[in-house]
């Protein structure tokens, strides 16, 4: 995750005015300010959906949370999820993960988010909205949160008291139970709770009994961790008779459980408050669970209110606790796949159908029954857990051998738009990530299916999240009525609008079928022929992380990529960690050999660049032990040679000239290096004579795709530097720039110079005055004047990288650390009062 840079020093207003006047006089054409439109590049999911919640009374009011990419609200009219947390700034990027969502059952307009990615950061907050998340009050929280930590699959930790809507409760990870009496603005510690939460996961869920004022349940991450209060939290009691030990028949020989007894994961309460359903596992999840149960608890004691699967006769009341674990005691149909490979998994996801007033219709999911066979299942019961339908089995084509899945041809939105990248392959072809199905043509039914929702207002509409997307059906009940046991439930993808990839690299070649090729964490990369339509994943080799990509400046159809593939292709005479394509990324050829030191055990596979003519690949491995410069190949990756000359490190900061063949630039330990012989040797440019500041922190040189020898270095707080002579000499573009991220794109139409480019900078411009905010800026005149491109509502937690488009004036791609790829396009006519010399102009929107 990108770290926020230090803030710039304030220049004095006097010196700023002088500077601005000088630059204005010198500039040819001011940078015009335009309204901008921001869109997301459609991948559709791409990461772990941690939770789904639905409002109990308002139709179609659904929310989703993600571990690193914030929260979303479903918009039925827009037919997509709407991101709610894009206003989070780079400085606040820890607030881009959602630990919990709470809805006010008495007021559909109110929604609360608990925000904070990592426990190590003390930046955590409650976002409180009275307009369905269109705007939020941000209230710092007095304890850390961990939306991307272990146990993020459980919840919800946050709840609104249905009898007092101003009151919220939050089960924290490290500081016990907290209460707010002012709509999540301020919080007090509820110290009445016995300390049962020693294992750092804390309290997973808070559940109010909507039928009884003052009754609230808590689930803590420990055996015996279920508590109830009947007096609004003044006193607490452990639920009597709750399961605290493993049934030895459950445990597999040689595989001890991680916990001494079953630990509560999630729970739901029937609308009448009489039945509590609880899922259990031996590990917090989302990975690692080996064992688990599903139980129900008769909250009012031994009543006659519920049916039971127990063996007791129908005349005697049901027990307090009933083990309703699917797949046991012949209680599921079809029966479990045999033999089940270890581990059988725990249970986590659970959701109750509020349209069933008896509270006996529910779904649950198993957790970490992986790598199979069988894989994880989703189970439906309409009799309070007495019997279950194994929906995953019934949804799969026949003959999967336990590897439940959806035919990839059915991975489509409800309106037919395909989501083809979900067709991961497994086995020999895949690099190690656990998502792909081993069955060709199948998308895994799911893994990490912990976000599960029976839509409160649409009976039969069920959604479940996976580690990568959301699947939905309009009629889960079709399974029970089905005459056939194969594919008796129709599923579609309902994740459109959610973008939660971690972007590692992007390129925008100057010609070819696609303006954008992406490289992601976890899901390889894609060629985005249409930015609004999900695309297939790159073909083999499959990377679990795509680290670096480049295109040949004068042969844009030639592209190359390197990344993390945990497979050894040496036996096939190929390198699984690097490949090139001569058709813009449609078909790929693995390098015959990897650069020395790169193999299936390396997880960061370095930087690849291509010279302008497409004759030379240069691959920097980043390996500290290699005492030579980046490796060069002139034979398409068959052999790799170390360069002679001054550069003796596998630098992270490498670029190829996009116009002059055989020309490369590197920056290492504060020195710029240039090769004009195809990476066979590099010469250092001494900083003293170059004009660069001494002791600079290196950055990747950014080249002008129209002009040989023109490049920029974005040096953070040290500013933005420009060279027009192949890096020999440098000048500061303008004083007062904080240049954290930088790129170039197509020049403004008015520019007469055919080699000109537009400049994009993420940072601050003219660090004084009220407009000097961290943001995305564009300059059309080489940096003399700038205008802000984004606004405070479009910050996305800051970028991992930005990229101008060489073909579309004004367009800039923002690669985020959890919100996918966003791009900004000019959306309207220029404003006359637009930019100010070297001062942030009016906001784009
Ligand atoms: C399908 O839905 C998606 C998401 O709302 C939308 O982008 C796309 O245009 C729709 N396609 C059709 C054919 O309506
Ligand atoms: C947050 O952590 C930083 C670094 O450890 C510390 O300097 C700061 O005082 C902390 N802030 C709060 C509000 O605890
Ligand atoms: C709920 O209980 C509290 C505490 O006894 C009481 O103050 C409040 O008025 C009750 N609210 C409702 C709606 O019954
Ligand atoms: C909050 O209360 C719990 C006991 O329930 C205690 O362990 C914790 O230290 C308290 N935290 C703060 C910040 O007061
Ligand atoms: C028990 O069943 C009777 C008859 O259906 C009903 O009137 C009564 O309310 C039930 N008791 C409870 C506690 O649910
Ligand atoms: C399992 O349940 C089915 C359906 O209720 C029943 O037909 C079958 O006899 C049961 N099998 C066993 C071994 O109890
Ligand atoms: C990959 O396979 C080749 C050929 O079998 C072998 O020589 C090499 O040691 C393997 N690499 C690793 C890292 O095991
Ligand atoms: C190249 O890719 C295209 C599009 O994916 C495919 O139709 C074609 O068969 C591929 N050609 C080769 C030679 O693999
Ligand atoms: C794989 O790469 C690592 C890191 O460079 C290296 O230590 C190891 O020796 C390599 N293994 C083989 C078999 O080349």
TrEMBL record:
Biased segments, Polar residues type: 322-332
Keywords: Carbohydrate metabolism, Glycosidase, Hydrolase, Polysaccharide degradation, Signal
Any one Gene Ontology BP term: xyloglucan metabolic process
PANTHER family (alphabetical): OLIGOXYLOGLUCAN-REDUCING END-SPECIFIC XYLOGLUCANASE-RELATED, XYLOGLUCANASE (EUROFUNG)
Organism the protein comes from: Coniella lustricola
InterPro entries: WD40/YVTN_repeat-like_dom_sf, Xyloglucanase_GH74
Signal peptide start and end residues: 1-29
Protein name: Putative oligoxyloglucan-reducing end-specific xyloglucanase
Record family assignment: Belongs to the glycosyl hydrolase 74 family.
Lineage top rank: taxon: Eukaryota
MF terms (GO), sorted A to Z: hydrolase activity, acting on glycosyl bonds
Record field: compositional bias (Low complexity): 305-315
Region Disordered: start-end pairs: 304-338
């Amino acid at each position: 995750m990108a770290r926020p840079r230090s803030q710039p020093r304030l220049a004095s207003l006097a010196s700023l005015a002088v500077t601005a006047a000088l630059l204005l006089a010198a500039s040819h054409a001011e940078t015009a300010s335009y309204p901008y439109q921001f869109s997301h590049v459609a991948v559709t999911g791409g990461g772990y959906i941690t939770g789904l919640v639905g409002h109990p009374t308002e139709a179609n009011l659904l929310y989703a949370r993600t571990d690193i990419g914030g929260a979303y609200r479903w918009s039925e009219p827009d037919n997509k999820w709407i991101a709610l947390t894009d206003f989070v700034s780079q400085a606040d990027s820890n607030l881009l993960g959602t630990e919990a969502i709470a809805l006010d059952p008495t007021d559909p307009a109110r929604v609360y988010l608990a925000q904070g990615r990592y426990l190590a950061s003390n930046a955590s907050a409650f976002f409180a909205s009275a307009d369905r998340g269109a705007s939020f009050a941000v209230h710092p929280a007095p304890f850390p949160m961990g939306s991307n930590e272990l146990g993020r699959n459980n919840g919800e930790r946050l709840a609104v008291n249905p009898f007092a809507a101003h009151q919220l409760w939050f089960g924290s990870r490290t500081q016990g139970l907290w209460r707010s009496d002012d709509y999540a603005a301020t919080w007090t510690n509820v110290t009445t709770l016995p300390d049962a939460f020693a294992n750092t996961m804390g309290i997973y869920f808070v559940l109010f009994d909507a039928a009884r004022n003052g009754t609230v349940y808590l689930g803590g991450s420990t055996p015996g961790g279920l508590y109830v209060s009947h007096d609004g939290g003044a006193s607490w009691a452990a639920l009597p008779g709750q399961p605290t030990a493993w049934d030895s028949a459950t445990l597999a020989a040689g595989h001890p459980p991680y916990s001494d007894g079953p630990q509560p994961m999630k729970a739901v309460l029937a609308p009448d408050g009489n039945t509590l359903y609880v899922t259990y596992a031996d590990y917090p999840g989302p990975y690692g669970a080996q064992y688990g149960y599903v139980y129900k608890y008769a909250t009012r004691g031994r009543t006659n209110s519920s049916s039971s699967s127990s063996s007791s006769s129908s005349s005697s009341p049901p027990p307090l606790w009933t083990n309703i674990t699917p797949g046991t005691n012949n209680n599921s149909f079809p029966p479990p796949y045999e033999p089940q490979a270890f581990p059988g998994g725990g249970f986590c996801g659970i959701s109750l159908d509020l349209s069933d007033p008896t509270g006996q219709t529910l779904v649950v999911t198993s957790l970490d029954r992986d790598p199979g066979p069988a894989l994880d299942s989703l189970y439906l019961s309409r009799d309070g857990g007495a019997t279950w339908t194994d929906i995953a089995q019934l949804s799969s084509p026949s003959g999967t051998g336990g590897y439940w899945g959806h035919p990839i041809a059915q991975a489509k939105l409800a309106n037919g738009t395909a989501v083809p990248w979900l067709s991961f392959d497994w086995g020999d072809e895949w690099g190690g990530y656990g998502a792909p199905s081993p069955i060709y043509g199948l998308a895994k039914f799911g893994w990490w299916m912990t976000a599960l929702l029976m839509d409160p207002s649409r009976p039969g509409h069920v959604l479940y999240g996976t580690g990568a997307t959301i699947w939905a059906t309009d009629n889960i009940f079709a399974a029970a009525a089905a005459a056939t046991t194969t594919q008796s439930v129709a599923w579609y993808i309902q994740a459109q609008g959610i973008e939660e990839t971690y972007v590692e690299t992007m390129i925008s070649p100057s010609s070819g079928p696609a303006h954008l090729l992406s490289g992601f964490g976890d899901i390889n990369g894609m060629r985005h022929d249409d930015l609004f339509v999900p695309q297939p994943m790159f073909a083999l080799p499959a990377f679990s992380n795509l680290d670096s990509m480049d295109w040949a400046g004068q042969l844009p159809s030639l592209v190359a990529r390197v990344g993390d593939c945990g497979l050894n292709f040496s036996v096939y005479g190929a390198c699984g960690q690097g490949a090139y394509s001569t058709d813009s990324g449609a078909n790929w050829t693995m390098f015959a050999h990897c650069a020395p030191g790169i193999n299936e055990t390396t997880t960061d596979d370095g930087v690849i660049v291509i010279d302008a003519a497409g004759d030379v690949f240069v691959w920097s491995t980043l390996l500290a032990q290699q005492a030579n410069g980046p490796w060069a190949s002139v034979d398409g990756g068959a052999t790799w040679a170390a360069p002679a000359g001054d550069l003796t490190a596998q630098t992270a900061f490498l670029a190829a000239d996009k116009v002059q063949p055989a020309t490369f630039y590197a920056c290492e330990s504060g020195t710029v290096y240039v090769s004009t012989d195809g990476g066979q040797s590099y010469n250092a440019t001494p900083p003293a004579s170059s004009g660069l500041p001494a002791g600079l922190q290196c950055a990747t040189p950014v080249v002008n795709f129209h002009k040989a020898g023109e490049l920029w270095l974005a040096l953070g707080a040290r500013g933005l530097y420009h060279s027009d002579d192949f890096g020999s000499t440098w000048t500061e573009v303008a004083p007062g720039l904080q240049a954290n991220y930088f790129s170039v794109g197509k020049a403004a139409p008015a520019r007469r110079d055919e080699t000109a480019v537009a400049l994009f900078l993420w940072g601050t411009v003219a660090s004084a005055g009220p407009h000097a905010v961290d943001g995305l800026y564009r300059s059309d005149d080489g940096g003399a004047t700038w205008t802000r491109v984004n606004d405070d509502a479009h910050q996305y937690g800051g970028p991992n990288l930005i990229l101008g488009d060489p073909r579309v004036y004004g367009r800039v791609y923002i690669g985020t650390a959890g919100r996918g790829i966003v791009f900004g396009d000019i959306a309207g006519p220029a404003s006359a009062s637009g930019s100010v010399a070297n001062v942030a102009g009016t906001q784009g929107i």
